Amino acid sequence: MSQREQWSSKLGFILAAAGSAIGLGAIWKFPYIAGQNGGGAFFLIFILFTLLLGLPLLLAEFVIGRSTQANAINSYKKIAPGSKWHWIGVLGMVSCFILLSFYSVIGGWIVAYLFKVVTGGLNHLTSNQYAEIFGSTISDPIISIIVQFLFILITIIVVARGVQNGIELASKFMMPALFILFIILVIRAVTLDGAMEGITFLLQPDFSKVTSKTVLEAMGQSFFTLSVGVSVMVTYSSYLPKNQSLPRSAFSIVGMNLAIVLLAGLAIFPAVFAFGLKPDAGPVLLFNVLPTVFSHLPFGMFFFGAFLILFLFAALTSAFSMLEIIVSVISKNTAQRKKWSWIIGLAIFVFGVPSALSFGILGDVKLFDKTIFDLMDFMVSNVLMPLGSLLIAIFVPLKMKKSSLYEEIIKGSKLFKGLFNVWYFLLRFVAPLLIIAVMLDVLGVW
Ligand code: PFF
Predict the structure, then answer these.
(1) Is the pLDDT of residue 29 over 70?
(2) Domains in the chain, ordered, with CATH?
(3) Hey, which of 145, 172, 174, 239 would disulfide with 313, CB 3.0 to 4.6 Å?
(4) Rounded Cα distance, 348 and 149, in Å
């Protein structure tokens, strides 16, 4: 274990973990799920879940990873030898496999749009024309598979090179740039004629629209955007030196993530209403709306291209973490890391092809009234991630000593002494009960 790589700097870890967290979840998924679930009320419930569940669980994963300095399976084995708890890690690996298989479909869409911008295919169009072009691109089986492949290819190459070289470097410059571009975008969107309606939609809760499904989706979304429940954060924090404050990292990641969610919402919804589009358009929402907003900026297509590059990086840094957790368990050394990155990456690609085709030729194939893509997403976000989170919330207080948890939490900053008990209470009581309650509610138990 002494040979394990470590993050070269404190910032490196935060950026990489934030890179895993911030991605399609905040930028692409949040707006469309919020749009389908009535806006403001969903947003509020999402924030509550992020603070009550996501944040404590993120910290719990950090504690597991840093205290054991081991991968997603061995960390559980170290804490609870001879038990079955390491199945949490297996569950996480399976979740990440499925997750990357459909995540890469959307990543591919970014690649496809980028090609179109670069080749000048998007100049001077109306919002309907953007939607039409986009629709025909993603329903084309060859194009959608090629771009999905390209996205996975980049992921494989970076993960094969190792966690430090690849992941840290990519996160360092892109994230701040993404923030800046988002702020420009928001300023443009909220100053459009008719923007107010969109701002109200996002920020004014209408609880009459809340159903069990809304609550489940908000919970799933809070896990999804923070990458918790699948032991990715266990894996990342295992590369962390001992002297760093875990709560501080967790707070900054949650803060950045919520900021991006808010910025994405404020960039999208004012524009949706100003241009007379529909907030419940589903997965295509962001891709239909954004080019129109950019076309209302000077040098719009240039900025759109820049945005797509940064967006692609945000998606890739999340994708890296999904593949990394699987590869770090299976490979024993650097040579094996290369081999397994390719084998697993390609297997994920093959498994993801039906999801890519579900926006075109497989669009009518439905199970439980969902397309293949939607079903994969539902399974990961609303079943596997809550289940993994539930198990972690049970595991940590049960198998780790309260005193050693305390030591681990306050290391690097005594500031969090007072908050320890709040965290412990949320993790031990609130998280399990809330997750179980939401699940039972959806199953119609009460
Ligand atoms: N948090 C990522 C996003 O919001 O795009 C998605 C994700 C990455 C989920 C890694 C889970 C994970 F393990």
Answers:
(1) yes
(2) 2-442 (1.20.1740.10)
(3) 174
(4) 10
